[in-house]
Amino acid sequence: MVMFGSSYSKFIPLVSQLGKYLKMGLDHYAMLKNEGTEVGPDMIAAFLMLKMADWDPKINQVSLLDDKTRAAAARFLAGVAVNFAGGE
Fold this sequence. Notes:
The protein contains three helices and two strands; from the N terminus they run ααββα.
C-alpha cells in the first residue's frame, strides 16, 4: 500500500496545470465554434494532446503520465470543456 502522508500538496502544480489545459480547451472550443466549425470532445482532445505532448509532471522524480494516461487526461478535459460550453 502506498502512503502519501502529507504529500498531497505535491499534487497542486499538477492540478494547476490541468486547469490551464482546461482553459486552453475551452478557448479552442470557442474559437472553432465562432468559425462555424462543428466541435466535439474528440477534436478538443486531439488539440489538447498536442499541447500536452511534452508535459512530463513528476513527483519525487516519478513521472505521472504515460501515453495512455495523458490521452485519458486530454479526453477528460475535453469532455469537461465541451459540456461546460454547452456542446454535445
